[in-house]
Design brief:
4 helices; single chain; Nuclear Transport Factor 2, Chain: A; five-stranded antiparallel β-sheet; globular; about 45% strand
């Protein structure tokens, strides 16, 4: 039996823990963010979270219960997945160890609330940590993963000491009785030169796989599905694709639908395909060449299909190239789509928003949640539609106090779930601005969001706002002129101050002497300001470590600085001029 960790008194959470807008800390100690945590919810509303601890074990916690362990520290694991189909919950992962070949293992949550002993799904395909699960409430469950096994009859490195070229293909197994018995492992991209990115969905009572696969020098989106027993149909081409970067699949009108983002030549393209009357109907999204998409999420309910993604401008000349959230939908099962439009209800593009997620409730309720940096720290925001995405709240809603904590969503996995009439969002939260240690939190989204409270600096162009900024900029430069580097240090952003102690900053300052300064211009957008300062400096004679001397007479120059409004006041953003980086994340 899989061991169970009994939590100390007071750590077990009662059923009301998922009260609206009340975050629940999942991990009793710190968790390991290198293993992407997973969220699953049954149709009746039972919520489960899978994550890794610092010892490398995979753990699963149910909202109303304790923690159960899936693996031991002696067996390193990766590629964790967790899915619920109806009332059935499954987890799968890649397991290995010293001298042990990697293997796909799978466990199911039994009726008594204990996870089953891990089943070996496959090791012969030389599996890699890219695993997908799909199924239904009637006991169907399918697993697909990436493997690197040589072709049959290939001697590999037997004739040479050179490392053989990768032989990436997608493999799968199916069960129809809840994982008790399984069909054979099949190479699903057989007949192609290889396959790489899988997307899995149920549609029309069968499992469907979409993937990119190469043949005769061309990359194609291919499709395979489960047959009447426990095997798979041969993969067949859907459409040419170019270099696939993202792929997602869902069910629309009981038919399989796939959306992919790819490069074709020197351009990006977002496309979709849905099966209709046995034929594939493809759609190229107009204007998608303008988007460099970083993440996307797809959901459907009947005829309605919803696509949300985050992207920056595909043109390097556009500045700032910050990720923003975009949205489109289809009313005919994915055959045609509305024009892509920005979704974030915030006019400034000086801060980013990314990793959007979409979940569907009852009677046309749609929720979209994402990571938003409009307040400079990573907040969780969401918006709600009650008419199938036709209209939305006129203001986005934060899930916690804006600008206080650094919350982070995990990319490429679905962390927003709808079940039992509720919506749940899983995210991590750093303990401080050092961004070193994080905790895992589960949020319950309010069914009836209240209006957001006004902020102190809603009008970035107000005279009070500009005056407060210029006062802080003058204080910083006056401190440099007076060689008061301790006072200057206190005006830097909190991310920098968490990484460099005041005494270290003061100790390395003072080689450059600052004289007169003047603020030339100020431009404020949201909580970010660009300030041009002209100043005079000189460098007294320095003895160089390798010999020689260096000095510079009083010289006038101009610098463009970034100042950010955080923790109730303006702070100078630290930027390393040699490495050209900052510690802020907005």
């Amino acid at each position: 039996m899989i061991p169970v960790l009994i939590l100390a008194a007071g750590l077990l959470i009662s059923p009301p823990l998922l009260a609206e807008a009340s975050p629940w800390r999942v991990n009793p100690d710190s968790f390991n963010p290198r293993q992407t945590p997973r969220l699953a919810a049954t149709d009746s509303g039972q919520v489960h979270v899978a994550f890794a601890d610092q010892e490398g074990r995979l753990l699963v916690r149910q909202a109303e219960g304790g923690i159960q362990t899936l693996t031991t520290p002696q067996r390193p694991a990766s590629g964790l997945v967790l899915e619920a189909f109806g009332e059935q919950v499954y987890s799968a992962w890649l397991e290995g160890g010293q001298g042990v070949p990697p293997a796909i293992r799978m466990s199911a949550l039994r009726d008594d609330g204990v996870w089953s002993e891990a089943l070996l799904l496959d090791s012969s395909s030389r599996p890699l940590p890219r695993i997908r699960l799909s199924g239904d409430g009637q006991g169907q469950v399918s697993a697909v993963w990436l493997g690197d096994a040589p072709d049959a009859g290939d001697s590999g490195s037997a004739e040479s000491d050179a490392t053989p070229a990768p032989n990436y293909h997608l493999y799968g197994r199916r069960s129809r009785d809840g994982g008790l018995t399984w069909g054979e492992t099949r190479r699903l991209t057989a007949g192609y030169d290889g396959g790489f990115w899988p997307a899995l969905t149920m549609a029309g009572g069968r499992v469907h796989l979409f993937a990119d696969a190469r043949r005769d020098g061309e990359t194609l989106i291919v499709h395979a599905q489960g047959d009447e027993v426990l095997d798979w149909t041969a993969a067949e081409p859907v459409a040419p694709a170019g270099g696939v970067l993202l792929i997602s699949a869902t069910q629309a009108r009981e038919e399989p639908l796939v959306v992919w983002f790819a490069t074709q030549g020197n351009q990006y393209r977002l496309e979709s395909a849905v099966r209709q009357d046995g034929q594939w109907k493809t759609h190229a999204f107009p204007g998608s060449e303008a988007y460099d998409i970083g993440s996307m999420d797809l959901a459907a309910q009947g005829d309605r299909v919803y696509l949300v993604f985050s992207a920056r401008s595909a043109r390097a000349t556009d500045q700032p190239r910050k990720n923003q959230v975009y949205f489109t939908r289809s009313a005919d099962g994915g055959i045609s789509w509305e024009p892509i439009r920005p979704f974030r209800h915030y006019s400034s593009k000086s801060t980013q928003a990314n990793f959007p997620q979409v979940a569907l409730g009852r009677d046309g309720e749609v929720v979209i949640a994402w990571n938003d940096y409009r307040n400079l720290r990573g907040d969780l925001y969401y918006n709600v539609s009650t008419d199938s995405g036709a209209t939305w709240l006129d203001q986005d809603r934060p899930l916690d106090e804006p600008g206080v904590s650094e919350d982070v969503l995990f990319p490429f996995v679905r962390q927003l779930r709808a079940s039992g009439g509720r919506f749940h969002l899983l995210a991590s939260r750093y303990r401080d601005d050092g961004l070193g240690v994080a905790d895992l939190y589960l949020h319950g989204l309010p069914a009836s969001p209240s209006a957001p409270s006004p902020t102190d600096l809603n009008d970035p162009g107000s005279p009070e706002n500009r005056a407060a900024l210029e006062t802080r900029v003058s204080a910083f430069w006056n401190a440099l002129v007076k060689a008061d580097h301790a006072s200057a240090y206190k005006l830097f952003d909190p991310y920098f101050r968490r990484r460099m102690r005041q005494e270290d900053y003061v100790g390395q300052s003072g080689r450059v002497k600052h004289h007169a300064f003047a603020i030339e211009s100020v431009r404020v957008e949201g909580y970010v300001a660009q300030v041009a300062v002209r100043f005079t400096y000189e460098i007294p004679v320095l003895n160089l470590p390798r010999g020689g001397r260096y000095s510079r007479p009083p010289t006038s120059t101009q610098v463009d600085e970034t100042w950010i409004f955080i923790d109730g006041d303006w702070h100078k953003e630290y930027r390393n001029e040699i490495g050209d980086f900052a510690f802020t994340r907005y």
